[in-house]
Amino acid sequence: MEQRVQLKTTSREQTLTLAAQFARLLRGGEIVFLRGPIGAGKTVFVKGVAASLGLKSSPTSASFSLMKRYQNKQIRMFHIDLFRLEETEVFNLGFEEMLEDEQAIILAEWPDPIAHMLPADRLEMNFVLEQADTRTIELTSHGRISAALLEGLCQAAAHL
């Protein structure tokens, strides 16, 4: 059952705080698609998640390296950025390891070329840049795991 919610952030710091609250909900096995124009806050959100999970390296826009793996003793996170790639270009890029790891957290920017390769249960986040640093984040859950994430994030966002 699909659920939809909209959240707003009004600064980079607030987006990072939302990401930190989101990270507390992650247990492994979650898939998140991040969409939106360049500069809308997708990578800022990913940085906030990684920092809150205690991952040492800070993600950069993965457009320069299509897939990066971050991990510590408790968590493995894959950050994917498929900006400007077509579906036929994503094969043989090493996604097999990621797809076999059922406990990894997958955060995929510009995910459309691999959407059919991943499980259907995912949380989709569409970042809409409005004015200055204000953004609306449109969230859609597809499945039981993502619905729980959405509910938890909405509860956490109520305290922003």
What features would you describe in this structure?
The protein has 160 residues and is of the alpha/beta class. It has a single domain, classed as P-loop containing nucleotide triphosphate hydrolases (Rossmann fold). The chain has four helices and seven strands, in the order βαβαββαβββα. It has helices at 12-23, 42-52, 95-100, 144-157; strands spanning 2-9, 31-35, 67-71, 76-81, 105-109, 122-129, 135-142. The protein has a seven-stranded mixed sheet with strand order 1-7-6-2-5-4-3. α1 (12-23) packs across α2 (42-52). The model has no long low-confidence stretch (mean pLDDT 87).
- On the 0-100 scale, what is the average pLDDT? 87
Unreliable spans are none
User: So what's the CATH class?
Assistant: Alpha Beta
Distance between the termini: 27 Å
What is the number of domains?
A: 1
- Please name the CATH topology: Rossmann fold
The dominant shape is: globular
Q: What share of residues is helical?
A: 25-40%
Structural class: alpha/beta
**What percent of residues are in strands?**
25-35%
| Main beta-sheet strand count, sense and barrel state | 7 strands, mixed
**Taking Cα atoms only, what radius of gyration do you get, to the nearest Å?**
14 Å
CATH architecture: 3-Layer(aba) Sandwich
Strand order of the largest sheet: 1-7-6-2-5-4-3
